[in-house]
């Protein structure tokens, strides 16, 4: 009975690998762009010797706004064979697998407050809203179509997160009008989305670990900070009690096909400070 799962993994592996390679390439190009911009601005500033906003980093506390985009993914652990009891009382074994078949794009907006700790370290609090969508595919390997392919069900899992991110930032020495940095933090999130009629429903709360890098660009009237960060859920995001509340018992095989879920995001944000 495990053969369909193996075939599914063999089919999906090249697709996932190709998309993962594309994501890595985009990330590398973004990082290289940030480094190139920092280098170019540094070289330009070395020639002109003019620093924009020379005292902006000496502020003990300041505010800003955030706009950006992100790609969402979710990592599922499938239960494998399961016994499902129908409405007529009969039981049968079902094998259903669930997966997000692509990284889905979304956008994010927020505000920030940043406190200067010393010359290199800063503490940032950034309440942010994330708007996105995840496209889920369920493959029923027990009940198949006439051509032998698994019966497929789809779900669009819309997500609206409110986060209260706390980040620790380590910045290098300012090079005229640019300053690279790395960051790490914890992001508790409140999930405002989810419907009782969905196959899969996520918990109302989540906690993400964040790691990223960016660069400060000192412009004449404000500081621009592009940042690329990676977010991974530290807890099981799946609402395991959701299947018990379903009225349509035909949905149980899909709702119970997953035992654990961890959300992931790749976020590109622009901070205006």
Largest sheet: 8 strands, antiparallel, barrel
Q: Given this structure, which CATH class is correct? A: Mainly Beta
Order of helical and strand elements: HEEEEEEEEEHE
Q: What is the strand arrangement across the widest sheet? A: 1-4-5-6-7-8-9-10
Please give the alpha-carbon distance between the first and last residues. 57 Å
Overall pLDDT metric: 84
How many domain units? Answer: 1
* Overall 3D form: elongated
Q: What structural class do helix, strand and pairing data support?
A: alpha+beta
Radius of gyration: 23 Å
Question: Beta-sheet strand percentage?
Answer: over 45%
- What is the name of the CATH topology? Porin
Helix content: 10-25%
How many E-type strands?
10
**How large is the count of helical segments?**
2
Low-confidence stretches: 1-17
How do you describe this structure in short?
The chain is α+β, with helices and mostly antiparallel strands. It contains 2 helices and 10 strands; from the N terminus they run αβββββββββαβ.
């Amino acid at each position: 009975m495990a053969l369909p799962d193996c075939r599914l993994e063999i089919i999906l592996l090249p697709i996932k690998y190709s998309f993962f390679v594309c994501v890595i390439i985009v990330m590398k190009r973004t990082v290289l762009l940030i480094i190139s911009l920092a280098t170019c601005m540094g070289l330009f500033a070395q020639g002109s010797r003019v620093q924009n906003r020379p005292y902006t980093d000496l502020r003990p506390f300041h505010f800003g706004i955030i706009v950006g985009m992100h790609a969402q993914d979710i990592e599922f652990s499938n239960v494998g064979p399961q016994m499902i009891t129908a409405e007529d009382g009969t039981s049968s074994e079902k094998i259903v697998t669930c997966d997000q078949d692509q990284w889905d794009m979304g956008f994010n907006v927020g505000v920030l407050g940043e406190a200067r700790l010393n010359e290199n370290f800063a503490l940032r609090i950034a309440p942010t809203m994330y708007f996105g969508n995840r496209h889920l595919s369920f493959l029923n390997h027990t009940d198949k179509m006439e051509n032998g392919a698994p019966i497929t069900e789809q779900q669009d899992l819309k997500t609206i997160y409110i986060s209260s991110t706390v980040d620790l930032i380590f910045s290098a020495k300012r090079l005229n009008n640019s300053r690279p940095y790395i960051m790490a933090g914890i992001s508790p999130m409140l999930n405002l989305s989810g419907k009782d009629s969905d196959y899969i429903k996520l918990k109302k709360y989540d906690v993400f670990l964040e790691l990223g890098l960016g660069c400060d660009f000192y412009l004449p009237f404000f500081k621009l900070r592009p940042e690329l960060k990676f977010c991974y859920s530290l807890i099981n995001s799946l609402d395991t009690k959701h299947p018990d509340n379903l009225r349509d018992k035909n949905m149980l095989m899909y709702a119970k096909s997953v035992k654990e879920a961890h959300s992931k995001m790749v976020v590109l944000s622009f901070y205006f400070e």
